[in-house]
Amino acid sequence: RTLMPQSEVEPDNAECHPHRGSGVWRWRSCLRSPTRCLKRAKSCICHMCGAHLNRLHSCLYCVFFGCFTKKHIHEHAKSKRHNLAIDLLYGGIYCFVCQDYIYDKDMEQIAKEEQRKAWKMQGLRGLINLGNTCFMNCIVQALTHTPLLRDFFLSDRHKCEMQSDSCLVCEMSQLFQEFYSGHRSPHIPFRLLHLVWTHARHLAGYEQQDAHEFLIAALDVLHRHCKGDDNSKMTNNPNHCNCIIDQIFTGGLQSDVTCQVCHGVSTTIDPFCDISLDLPGSSMPFWPLSPGGDGNVVNGESHLSGSTTLTDCLRRFTRPEHLGSSAKIKCGGCHSYQESTKQLTMKKLPIVACFHLKRFEHSAKLRRKITTYVSFPLELDMTPFMASSKESRMNGQYQQPLDTLNNDNKYSLFAVVNHQGTLESGHYTSFIRQHRDQWFKCDDAVITKATIKDVLDSEGYLLFYHKQFLEYE
């Protein structure tokens, strides 16, 4: 193809349509969306040396001419990442990625690849730190990459009964639109910060805050502001709501208190939106790791000598605990106060399971951060910690259940929040999963590619897992 003569160049206010014109203008408009071209080339000379020879090439992404012989067009392609240019003498299109000329039949495939790459980057957007607001930014990144929450907000299903400038759900809807708009510049979440200060006053101010505390506060406010939606109508149970927040994040925790005299069991089920796990090194006595055998293979975690895994923390969380003589309860069978044991198990699992590793210890005598490394898997099976699997555990020791094909309790990791630094001075970052196997590190306004090893080697503060299989009514 050849460049259009100067007399045929469309005026500055002409619309660049993908099926109008010919030559470089047609190719440029095919590779970009059919929007108005604000600039037109006044002359065909190299923008670096001013020459009109040396195999002049034109960039197909912007108005730029450069010498191919002197590699001025190469420098432009490298600095701007504009990987296609057209030879103005012979009309061939050159790809700087494969370093070769391509034919017309390849252009459709190239355009599809460019579109596919742009689609994969959807939702990746940095957030400006407004002054010690990294605790908010990392949680926002995790929430915006929660699949069902993303689908809800992008489908405009929220029906607000509040003033839009005071509704956190409306602001989150706008935030999702910003994240998936295709814009790459960092977003400034000043409205979100203002609403958080308004509805969770304990988080107001520019002091350092806890990311876990912000997550709990944000989910609570979102839950309260979702009451106008059709699917949030209260059921016969006043403690249960069917809003999108509860559907995704709320599970049921079963507590069994067993009398040590008559062995009667008192059972209660309470809602939970996260599970806080004690770590070795805290002032709380930690359940010693089993010396070998079953503990080394649960959930496929690497269990080095002396190391701690997420499964260890969950086994400790669900083990029977003797309450002691100082915490006697009144037994319904004995009709008197007796010693008892208490055991927690999962009655109902949420779609998104959030595990909070208790790294910050606050007591009357001690305030510190626990830096114990805890390994966590990419895929997690919660079957051993279900109430239905209680009979397969004896004295806190896990035994492999007979039913290993139950997929309802299997999860995949999709976000990790980390804390670097000390209790007094620290910084929050997050890893998020994009399209199954791609991971990115979000550090406020900066987003960089990450490897699975980077994710699994991180210290871990909040771990977000999503169910692999969902049931629909």
Characterise this structure.
GO terms for molecular function: cysteine-type deubiquitinase activity; zinc ion binding. Residues 125-468 form the USP domain. Residues 26-121 form the UBP-type domain. This protein has 473 residues and is of the alpha+beta class. Among the domains are: 6-120, 2-Layer Sandwich (Herpes Virus-1); 134-225, no CATH class. The chain contains eleven helices and 25 strands. The chain has helices at 23-31, 72-80, 104-120, 134-144, 147-154, 168-179, 190-199, 211-225, 244-249, 310-317, 452-456; strands spanning 56-59, 65-67, 84-87, 93-95, 100-102, 251-259, 265-272, 275-277, 308-309, 321-322, 329-331, 336-338, 340-348, 352-357, 360-362, 367-369, 374-375, 379-381, 393-394, 397-398, 410-421, 426-434, 438-443, 446-450, 462-467. Strands 8, 14, 18, 21, 22, 23, 24 and 25 form an eight-stranded mixed β-sheet that branches. It has a five-stranded antiparallel β-sheet with strand order 2-1-3-4-5. Strands 7-6-13-10 form a four-stranded antiparallel β-sheet, with no helix packed on it. Helix 4 crosses helix 8 (211-225) and helix 6 (168-179) runs antiparallel to helix 7.
**How many helices does DSSP assign?**
11
Provide the CATH architecture of the domain at 6-120: 2-Layer Sandwich
Radius of gyration based on Cα positions: 29 Å
Q: Let me know the number of strands.
A: 25
The CATH superfamily of the domain at 6-120 is identified as: Zinc/RING finger domain, C3HC4 (zinc finger)
Give average pLDDT, whole number.
Answer: 79
SS-based structural class? Answer: alpha+beta
